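Progress report, Aim 2. The chain analyzed during this reporting quarter is listed below.
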Amino acid sequence: MSQLVQDTRPVATVRSGPLSHARLPRWAPAAIAAGSIAAGCGIGLAAGWQSRVQWGMIAALVFVLATYVITTKVENSRQAKDRVATSLVWVCFVLAVVPLFSLAWVTITKGMEVVDGYFLGHSMNGVLDAEPGGGIYHALLGTIEQVLIAAVIAAPIGLLTAIYLVEYGRGKLAKAVTFFVDVMTGIPSIVAGLFVLATWNLMLGFGPSGFAGGLALAILMMPVVVRSTEEMLKLVPNELREASLALGVPKWRTILKVVLPTAIGGITTGVMLAVARITGETAPVLLLVFGTKLINPNPFEGAQSSLPLYVYEQYAVGTDASIARAWGAALVLIAFVMILNLVARGIARWKAPKTGK
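Predicted C-alpha cells for the chain:
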C-alpha cells in the first residue's frame, strides 16, 4: 500500500510590486517645446542676439535637456534616454524643414508680385534688363524643350542599363558599368557642359542650341536614373520572377510584364528626382545654349534661354525690376518641378499593378 509523502520544503514567495510607473501626460512634449521656445527667445533677447537662428538653437538645446531632466524625475532614466532620442529626431526634422519652408515662403511672397498672364506670355524682346516689364515665355519654352530632350535620351538608357545590371549583369563588364555610373554620379555639371562643348560644338562644328544643352543635362540625369531604377528592381521579390519563369515565360517577357510593373512607382519617382536635379542647372546651359531674349521654338538651331539661366541673368543686373523678375522665374521653376512630380505620381499610380482586397 503506497504512502503519500508530503513535501515540506519551503516555497519561495514572490513579492508583489506595482505593474506600472508614473508616466508623463501626452501634452508634456508640447508643453516642454513651448517652454523651450520661450526660453530660447528670452535668452536671445537678454543676450542681444539679432539672429533668429541662434534663438532656435538655444531653444532646441533647452528642449532636449528639459526633456531628459523632467522624464528622469517623473519616470526613470531609461525612459528619459528613449525620450531624448525621440527629441533629437524631432529637432533634426525641424532644423531640416524650417529652411525649406522659409525658402518656399520667401519665393512665393516675392514671386507672386510679378507672376501673371503677361509675365508668363511675353519674352524680354525689346525690354532693357534694368527696366520693368517683360516676361519668361522664351525661358520657360527653352526649359521645357531642353528637359524633355534630356529625359528622352537619359530615361531609356538609364532604365535599360539598370535592367542589365540587376537581371543580366555578371563579370567584369557589369563591374565596369557600375564603376562608371558611380563616377558619373559625382561629376560637376560644368564638366558635362565642357564635354559636350568639346565634342558636339568644337569637334563636330555645331553651334549653340537647346539640343546641346539637353545632351549635357542627359549626362547629368543618366546616373541618377540608373541608380534609382537599380534599387527599385532589387526590391522586387525573386519569387515573382521564379513563378513566371516556372510557367515557361521567357525572361525578357518576365521583366517586361512582371518586374517593371511591380517597380513602376519607384522607377517613376527616381526619374522625377533626376528631372528635378537637371531642371535647375545653369552652368551647362550657359556654355552650350548661350541665352537670348528672343523666342526660339527650335531647339536644334540657334541660342535659347532657360529658367535657371534667366534667374541668373536677371539677378546679376541688380535693379529692383530685374530682381523681381528673378523671383518670379524662380517661383515658376519650383511650380514646374512640382507639376512634373504630381503628373509622374499619377502615372505611376495608374500603371501600378492592382491588388485585390
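The CA atoms of residues 99 and 105 lie 10 Å apart. DSSP finds 14 helices and no strands in the chain. These observations will guide the mutagenesis work planned for the next reporting period.
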